[in-house]
Amino acid sequence: MKKAILGMATLALLFTGCNEDSSIEQDQAKVDMSDFYLYTDATDDGTSNARLGNVKNCGSMTVLNRQLNENPGLYKKMYDIELQSRKFMANAKPKGGNGGGNGGGGGDTGGGGDPVDDGLGTLNIPVYIYVIYSNDQQNISSAQINSQMAVLNSDFNDTNFSDVRPEFQGLGADVDINFMTPVIDRQFNSTTSWGTNNAVKAAYPAQPGYLTMWVANIGGGILGYAQFPGGNAATDGVVMSPQYFGTTGFVSAPFNGGRTTTHEVGHWMNLRHIWGDGRCRQDDFVADTPSSDAPNYRCDLTEASCRSTDMVENYMDYSDDDCMGLFTEGQKARMRAIFAPGGAREGLISRELKP
Q1: What is residue 226's three-state secondary structure?
Q2: Active-site residue among 82, 264, 313, 329?
Q3: Model confidence over 72-111: pLDDT tens digits?
Q4: Which of the 8 DSSP states describes residue 197?
């Protein structure tokens, strides 16, 4: 995907001190970071510049904008995580080959292209789920929780992409990540709407060593939000409203297929929205996802923007749950890179190395 190139002068404005600027310039000489950005045009109420006007869905980028404002050191930390990820992807080997990878590196981009062997094997992630409820409906059943875990494990281990258009089927990826049987922690709280200011996380902090999930009513039309790698450990994880978690029980169409959680976990693993939250001028750092100018809603397979067909079936768009069907090879490379040696989430997973 084409990138909007941000000049070195723009990056320099975001850091203070000559030493930091010099370090970044040296890094860029080895790995192209000229396209890197964090702030987006997401607004304070959780909306983005969407085709359908004031429609809300994922609050992750709004939360990131706020965290960047509150923590001046977060930008540099996330820059370093991105740099490490790109270095790892650039060194991944094509499957069956011995040389430097062209699937993980994608030239001057994040991931994309042919499948690669990153050497990490199957990744297993422990999960801790808070169920925060103010009424019986929100105290979702174990069956509903299990249905969500089944969707996660299916989406991150998909090998059949017949449910997406033929032009994208060859880009679908088996991410080879498993989510382990979760620890479930049920907590009654009279709060009826938690918002996106991490209030629920302040009341119930993230559990070290786990992918922490909070199932709690967010309100304001927000389905869920996630924290990207690099943020505060006490707030690290993903939040979903109960009616968008799983496929059975207290669920609400058209987001009753468990894909809100798949989408938010994608953010937690360092994926951006497929349109880059900046129209055609910004990118998701993945070479094999076509450019898009805004989120797509419902399931309009005729939608095209930025001189290409929109991949509305991608989990990182805003399509209805039953429309979604793939992560790409490039997205796979980005997600797995944060679990690599030296990666932001290396210590969280157990590995099963393949023979």
Answers
A1: strand
A2: 264
A3: 999 999 999 999 999 999 998 777 554 333 333 333 455 6
A4: S
- Residue 4 near residue 36, CB atoms below 8 Å: no
For residues 256 and 254, give the distance between their C-alpha atoms in angstroms, rounded to a whole number.
Answer: 6
CA distance 236 to 228: 8
Say if CB 343 and CB 84 are below 8 A apart: yes
**Residue among 152, 294, 285 nearest 228 (CA):** 285
Q: Which residue has the tokens 């207290």?
A: 250
DSSP 8-class letter at 6? P
> For helices 142-155 and 259-268, what crossing angle results, to 10°?
60
**pLDDT tens digit sequence for 182-223:** 999 999 999 999 999 999 999 999 999 999 999 999 999 999
Report whether 277 contacts 257 (CB < 8 A).
Answer: no
Contacts (Cβ under 8 Å, ≥6 apart) of 235: 198, 201, 202, 205, 206, 227
List the structure tokens of 19. Answer: 């030493």
Per DSSP bridges, beta strands 238-240 and 211-215 are: parallel
Q: What residues in the chain have per-residue pLDDT under 70? A: 1-29, 42-56, 96-113, 354-355
Active site residue 25: no
The pTM is what? 0.87
The residue count of the chain comes to: 355
Q: How far is Cα of residue 277 from the mean position of the Cα atoms in its chain?
A: 13
